[in-house]
Design brief:
By secondary structure, the chain is an alpha+beta fold. 13% of the residues lie in helices and 13% in strands. The strands form two sheets. It has a two-stranded antiparallel sheet. Strands 3-4 form a two-stranded parallel sheet. The longest helix has 10 residues. The mean pLDDT is 88.
């Protein structure tokens, strides 16, 4: 879904045009649990994808973070 917005889709001009509709494209996904037509209703962040954090520093939590997250949020 994050790739439904092109890098230069945001126009942000003072005339009121927020984004170029030709640069935000629809897509279709039908899965077992949901259906999405797209595009995503917000542009992607500057880094391309949201930063994923795992909350917790237990052994299983750290393993989950090592596999999927960019960082771990834990109380030191």
């Amino acid at each position: 879904m994050w790739d439904s917005w092109e890098d230069d889709a945001l126009v942000l001009n003072r005339g009121g045009l927020y984004a170029d509709p030709a640069r935000a494209r629809a897509f279709g996904h039908t899965g077992e649990h949901f259906r999405v037509g797209g595009p995503l209703t917000v542009p992607r962040p500057p880094q391309g994808r949201p930063v994923l954090f795992q909350a917790g520093a237990s052994g299983p939590g750290r393993e989950l973070a090592a596999r999927y997250a960019e960082g771990i949020y834990a109380v030191a």
